[in-house]
Design a protein that fits this description.
five-stranded parallel β-sheet; plasmid; alpha/beta; membrane; transmembrane; 8 helices; elongated; Rossmann fold; 196 residues
């Protein structure tokens, strides 16, 4: 835990954006980074998040900002308010971020730093923001994906069953059974390919 905290501090002080895997970001709120910290409970919907960030940078309430300005105006105001300030936006679950929220963060990324957690599978559109981030994880928190070994085991079992049936049956019944097993195997393989 201390090692990962040192890495986080080092990267934040270097001005990098950080995503940490499989952790609750609240565990790291006590880190002294020298930034003004803005913690976001939720990261959607986009305009509400932008309003919340701006309200924490100013004395105006979130509802007033939300009703008075468009999303683009709020983003421009955030850029003005964060100029020459060290702002760290902290939140959990980047994988839940919508495309519109991600666009807002990409717009203000030059003026702020992000420190977040990833506790699930990210989507392809998240790659735009993940490319600009340092992704950290503790070795003890790594999740091992056992899908492939299970598929290999099931495939071997199916092959052996298929072989046993082929040796024991003859004629049209054998042909129908073996063709249906083969068809089922092709469908299963296709579904696994689609699931990726």
């Amino acid at each position: 835990m201390k090692r990962i905290k040192k890495k986080i501090l080092l990267h934040l002080r270097d001005g990098e954006h950080i995503a940490i895997r499989y952790k609750n970001i609240k565990e790291y709120m006590d880190l002294e980074t020298g930034h003004e910290k803005i913690f976001l409970e939720h990261i959607n919907p986009a305009k509400e998040i932008a309003s919340e960030i701006l309200s924490k940078l100013t004395k105006t309430t979130r509802n007033t900002i939300y009703k008075k300005y468009t999303t683009n105006e709020i983003v421009q105001e955030i850029k003005k308010k964060t100029k020459n300030r060290m702002i760290l936006i902290i939140f959990n679950d980047l994988q839940q971020m919508s495309k519109s929220t991600m666009r807002i963060f990409l717009d203000i990324l030059d003026n702020i730093q992000i420190f977040c957690s990833i506790r699930g599978k990210t989507e392809k559109y998240h790659m735009k923001i993940l490319e600009k981030m340092m992704i950290l994880s503790s070795p003890e928190d790594e999740i091992i994906d056992i899908k492939i070994p299970i598929v290999i085991f099931a495939g071997t079992l199916a092959f052996l069953t298929y072989l046993k049936i082929a040796m024991g049956l003859q004629g049209l019944v054998a042909y129908i059974i073996l063709a249906s097993v083969w068809f089922g195997t092709i469908i299963a393989r296709t579904l696994l390919w689609i699931a990726k």
